[in-house]
Design goal:
The chain is mainly α and 326 residues long. The longest helix is centred in the first third of the chain and has 35 residues.
Length: 326
């Protein structure tokens, strides 16, 4: 059996002989790099990661670039590009040609996010603070607070459709109080979006509560004791200790909830599929599956990706300044 040095010399010779066009110094450097332990570790790591990389390539990267390609073409009924269309779909979505249906759907999605994200995070924070109180059966209350995380959006949508249904009369009092021209909250444009937002807040409350509670419990208890010795009350402890140290958790929830609310689809499909205009993701779904406008739907998905990317960067840049990681 050859020693390691002999094997490396053989490999260097092989690389040098196989690459006559490469200068001798470069051949030697390339061969030396290939036999370095770190290089072997890199290839070994890529080998182990290859199943995941293949899955990402097949179901994420290739479809993404395929969507970009389709967004620049007119397509037939089976989704094959037939004619170059340039940026016309993007011009239409952004309303630069006078048609505002794309911007209306996008604005509706932003309105929905503004309803869901702040209220969902504030409620989760309030419940997390309640769950830290040392009382009897507090574990039962924590279980109740997290119960919505075990219910899928589809199941939750069916439940809330029954709640909003005029047959169950569960929300009839609210319809009469608001004086809307419909028998259900989902039937009026002024209340339909808020009704779906209420269902979405409830559905995401379990996840938000668990993350927030974990952040609160990670704060060292000796900080509370030191503050109490200095005479701080509960309000001051929350304002000057809990809230600053919880900012990384709140930043995470803020970004995740914003992305999730702008990508909301299931609840709109179950509760208000007939709404016109509808949120941006549902409009994309209609353009793709019902109208067979694959190029337009692809362009809408790319626009949504760009919007989410820009919003995430802006949120991180603006809010990260006030985040305390220690």
């Amino acid at each position: 059996m050859q020693s390691t040095d002999e094997a490396q010399s053989t490999f260097v010779s092989t690389v040098s002989a196989a690459s006559p066009a490469i200068p001798q110094a470069r051949r030697a450097a390339l061969a030396a790099w290939l036999v370095k332990p770190t290089t072997r570790d890199l290839w070994r790591a890529l080998l182990y990661a290859s199943p995941a990389l293949i899955l990402f390539a097949l179901f994420t990267y290739i479809p993404f670039f395929r969507a970009i390609w389709l967004s620049l073409h007119l397509t037939n009924n089976i989704g094959e590009p037939v004619r170059w269309n340039g940026l016309n779909y993007y011009i239409r979505i952004l309303g630069l040609d006078g048609r505002t249906d794309g911007l209306q759907s996008l604005w509706l999605s932003f309105q929905f996010a503004l309803m869901v994200v702040p209220i969902g995070i504030v409620l989760a924070l309030a419940l997390a603070m309640l769950a830290t109180v040392k009382v009897r059966y507090i574990g039962l209350f924590r279980t109740i607070f997290t119960s919505s995380i075990a219910i899928s959006l589809a199941t939750g949508g069916v439940i809330w459709a029954l709640i909003y249904s005029p047959q169950t009369r569960a929300t009839t009092w609210l319809v009469e109080l608001l004086g809307i021209n419909s028998v259900t909250l989902l039937g009026d444009d002024r209340t339909a979006l808020a009704a779906v937002a209420a269902m979405t807040i409830w559905s995401g409350l379990g996840f938000n509560f668990i993350i927030t509670l974990a952040g609160v419990q990670a704060i060292p208890t000796d900080l509370y004791e030191s503050a109490q010795i200095d005479g701080a009350n509960r309000t001051q402890i929350f304002r000057f200790i809990i809230l600053p140290l919880l900012t990384p958790t709140l930043l995470f929830l803020f970004i995740i909830n914003t992305i999730g609310s702008l990508q909301a689809f299931t609840q709109f499909h179950l509760l208000i599929p007939q709404a016109d205009p509808n949120v941006f993701v549902y409009s994309t779904f209609l353009a793709f599956w019902y109208d067979n406008r694959y190029g337009l739907a692809s362009a809408m998905s790319i626009v949504l990706f760009a919007v989410l990317l820009i919003l995430t960067v802006i949120q991180y840049r603006l809010t990260n300044r006030g985040v305390h990681y220690q």
